[in-house]
Design goal:
Blueprint (H helix, E strand, L loop, with lengths): L7 E3 L14 E4 L4 E5 L5 E5 L7 E8 L10 E8 L14 E5 L2 E2 L13 E4 L2 E8 L5 E5 L14 H4 L10 E4 L7 E4 L20 E3 L2 E3 L14 E2 L2 E3 L17 E3 L2 E3 L6 E4 L4 E4 L5 E3 L5 E5 L4 E5 L18 E5 L6 E6 L4 E5 L2 E7 L2 E4 L11 E3 L5 E5 L4 E5 L12 E5 L5 E6 L4 E5 L2 E7 L2 E4 L17 E4 L5 E5 L4 E5 L4 E6 L2 E6 L5 E5 L2 E7 L2 E4 L37 E2 L3 E2 L6 E3 L4 E2 L5 E2 L6 E3 L1
Parallel strand pairs: 1-2, 17-18, 46-49, 47-50, 48-51
Antiparallel strand pairs: 2-3, 3-4, 5-6, 5-11, 6-10, 7-8, 7-11, 9-10, 12-13, 14-15, 16-17, 19-20, 20-21, 22-23, 23-24, 25-26, 26-27, 27-28, 28-29, 30-31, 31-32, 33-34, 34-35, 35-36, 36-37, 38-39, 39-40, 41-42, 42-43, 43-44, 44-45
Length: 605
């Protein structure tokens, strides 16, 4: 707070506005009156002497009340100022405590509060340590303004403007200028109802008999006119001004209720209560519900508070047209016309209507999650959104058919195509707006790669897998044999992405590779092998073999030497009726056996 609040005291006169700052209290010690300065600059008296509360100044001692208060601290004993006598206030809100210019908040309960202070008997507990004695502690001892003592309130206190007269009563001064005045009772005449009058000042005639209120009056009608509680039709309006309080009145005949402008007739012969044009049947204390006909249209008008509620187990309304309007008759809610549409409105705007062929919604049909549009006698077709996904679900018999006379296009919200189904044409499938698959009159076309995780089944002997812009590579089966046909360039088979396994050159060689290195090549006169040719057997006598290395190396190319091992490490059998020859010496390892069948010779030289 900007101002330092101090409790001030004085005697002999009320404090002036200049004596205080906003929010500052002051006590007039000679009268016991408490004053505060308000934000508007005026001084307000909170209470006064007489029947008002008593105020005391309190001080603090240490919590045990065996010595002076020491600071900083939070718990202290309350004592009457200038004494060591402990004092127990009735409640925290009877104390006005200021610490460092801030009025402290009183709290209920006896525990230490988070802010302000609380009381536990004569102990005051602050929300935190205070560094010095409070500015003041003021105790409202009586706890309230109290009741004035008998005969202690003077007329001056009541602000009565004149002297009393016996029998007069106190009344507010004319013009509400403040204060009271002694006023004389009404002695001549009054309006409204009188609880004590015994006679009318001027008698009134009732059916020719004067009535002043001093005695009862009996009215005898002509014979046949009033029989018991039945009022016959011969009674005219000119001779009947009031029926008084008649219980169970029966009118035997027509009865006309004449209004200022429009009338209502009970027509006995029609058994109907007939309202003239613009005569209204009005219900409610504020004429809330009105039913009437204005000569052109009929109205049920709810012009008051609440809603117009129609209740029925079976409601039938007959009219050529119905119009449900708002209370101001400025906005259509529902409009229904005979042999025509029923229209539903929102805020004056048409939103839905019946048609000769069904029902029409003008803008949107909004439904909640998992609410379904169900079609079919058994709800076979369902359209809904479950909060996460949207569904078009066929749960009944038959097929789900989507028909169009042009194109069915599935698109994302931005308009990019996902799939197009063209009438009498292609089916196009897209990826990120780019067409990747298209059906053709001859089959289908794929743009880009075709990644198949299963089997490609071409279940026909006339079908071919054609690859290349000119159908250069074709794979097919003709019913008897299978073909890989290359109609352009070389046919290359790779064992890996960067290594050849085979190359077939049209009208030329076929090459076989090992680890991307050519090892076999067909030539015009046969084949060329690069490296070692290992065979388990040879056919023929070998007379035509040339260029076979003898095994020994030297300075020339003489094919004279043939080399063999000198140790037999495993068992061998010489072919029956075949001879074998080795250059010795030859040793045979333990466990190894050389079998020489009958008719065969092994020669070691």
């Amino acid at each position: 707070m900007a101002n330092l609040i101090r409790l001030k005291r004085a005697s002999g006169s009320d404090p002036a506005a200049s004596d205080l700052v906003s929010g500052e209290p002051a006590v007039r010690t000679d009268t016991g009156e408490l004053f505060f300065k308000k934000d508007d600059g005026s001084v307000a008296k909170v209470s006064g002497a007489g029947g008002g509360p008593d105020f005391k100044y309190l001080a603090l001692r240490n919590a045990a009340n065996n010595g002076a208060a020491s600071y900083p601290n939070a718990d202290f004993t309350l004592v009457t100022s200038g004494t060591t006598n402990a004092l127990t206030p009735t409640a925290a809100n009877t104390l006005l405590v200021s610490v460092n210019g801030v009025i402290q908040k009183p709290n209920t309960g006896t525990s230490t509060p988070s802010s302000g202070f609380a009381l536990s008997g004569s102990t005051i507990k602050f929300g935190g340590n205070i560094s010095a004695a409070p500015d003041f502690i003021l105790y409202q001892e009586s706890g309230g303004i109290g009741e004035p003592s008998d005969a202690t309130v003077s007329e001056a206190k009541l602000n009565v403007s004149n002297n009393p007269v016996n029998g007069y009563f106190l009344s507010a001064q004319s013009g509400n200028t403040g204060g009271l005045t002694w006023a004389a009772p009404v002695a001549t005449s009054c309006t409204g109802n009188s609880a004590t009058a015994t006679a009318l000042a001027t008698a009134r005639a009732i059916n020719g008999v004067n009535f002043d209120g001093t005695a009862a009056i009996t009215v005898t009608a002509a014979a046949g006119t009033l029989s018991g509680n039945t009022l016959n039709s011969s009674v005219t309006a000119s001779s009947l001004t009031s029926l008084g309080d008649l219980a169970g009145l029966t009118v035997d005949g027509d009865a006309t209720f004449t209004g200022a402008n429009y009338n209502v007739l009970w027509d006995k012969s029609d058994n109907a209560l007939e309202f003239a044009d613009n005569a209204k049947a009005v219900f409610g204390a504020g004429n809330d519900l009105q039913i009437y006909h204005d000569g052109s249209n009929s109205y049920i008008e709810d012009a008051g508070t609440g809603s117009l509620i129609l209740k029925s187990n079976h409601l039938i309304a007959n009219a050529a047209a119905y119009s449900f309007m708002n209370a101001a008759n400025s906005e259509t809610l529902i409009y229904a016309v005979e042999n025509g549409a029923v229209e539903l409105y929102y805020d004056g705007s048409l939103k839905a209507n019946t048609r000769s062929d069904g029902f029409e919604i003008k803008q949107h049909l909004t439904m909640g999650d998992s609410d379904e549009i169900r079609l079919g006698n058994s709800s076979d077709l369902q359209i809904y959104h479950d909060g996460s996904h949207s569904y078009i679900q066929e749960t009944g018999t038959g097929h789900l058919k989507i028909k169009t006379g042009s194109i069915i296009s599935l698109q994302k919200i931005a308009g990019t195509s996902l799939a197009d189904f063209n009438v009498d044409g292609s089916v196009d499938l897209y990826h990120n707006g780019s067409k990747k698959f298209e059906t053709l009159s001859t089959g289908a076309a794929v743009t880009g790669e075709l990644d198949v995780s299963g089997t490609i089944d071409m279940n026909t002997d006339t079908g071919r897998l054609k690859i290349g812009a000119g159908d250069d590579l074709q794979i097919y089966h003709d019913g008897t044999n299978s073909y890989i046909a290359n109609n352009g360039g070389q046919l290359r088979i790779w064992a890996k992405t960067d290594g050849y396994a085979m190359i077939a050159v049209p009208d030329a060689q076929v090459e076989l590779y090992h680890n991307n290195s050519k090892k076999f090549e067909t030539v015009t006169g046969g084949a060329t092998i690069t490296g070692v040719c290992t065979a388990t057997s040879f056919a023929g006598d070998g007379s035509s073999l040339t260029g076979i290395s003898a095994g020994a190396t030297g300075g020339g190319n003489d094919e004279v030497f043939y080399e063999n091992s000198t140790t037999v490490t495993t068992s061998y059998s010489i072919t029956s009726n075949k001879n074998a020859m080795s250059a010795g010496p030859i040793s045979i390892n333990s466990g190894a056996v050389v079998t020489i069948p009958s008719g065969s010779v092994w020669t070691i030289v």
